[in-house]
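Morning, I've got a small favour to ask if you have a moment. I'm working through a protein record and want to make sense of it properly. The fold is given in discrete form, as structure tokens running alongside the sequence. Can you walk me through what the tokens say about the fold? Thanks so much in advance, here it is:
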Amino acid sequence: MNLLNLKKIGAQMNDSKPAEWIEDQILWLRRKKMCTTPMQLIKLVYIAHGWMLGIHGRSLISEHVEAWKYGPVIPSTYRRYKSFRGSKITREPIDRTKDFTEEQSEHIQEVVDAYIEYSGIVLSAITHQEGTPWDVARRKYGDRCTIPNEDIERYYKKLADDGFGKSK
């Protein structure tokens, strides 16, 4: 087996995507329902990534998450949308459904549906609770450290195992 084949196998095993693709899909799915601010988008990308790790044991994004003062952040997402500040993102959304596996596409749709009504402030509060991966990383390593995917996975797996979000 040559190195090219090994690289292809590795890519298939870890089918994570650029954060920008998840951003595009979230904006596409929310386009007719409500406006999306940068804070909402940053938190939704993180939450989708967390649930993917917790439920499926696989990373959704190919980038790392950092623990910033105001919550978990994917740095590239922040840089792309910081100019909108607290305003609605007016960038034309792109439908990236074809770029995802069926599992990823359904997962992103489920996260958007589950969190559609939440403001950026509420999403931020959800990710800032004591014991979240953001809280643990900041207390352990300080501001702007990388939040290990293993910690994110463990946290969201526990939420899933505890039945969070399931109807009773």
Summary: Residues 16-161 form one domain. Residues 4 and 10 are 10 Å apart (CA to CA). The two ends are 50 Å apart (CA to CA).
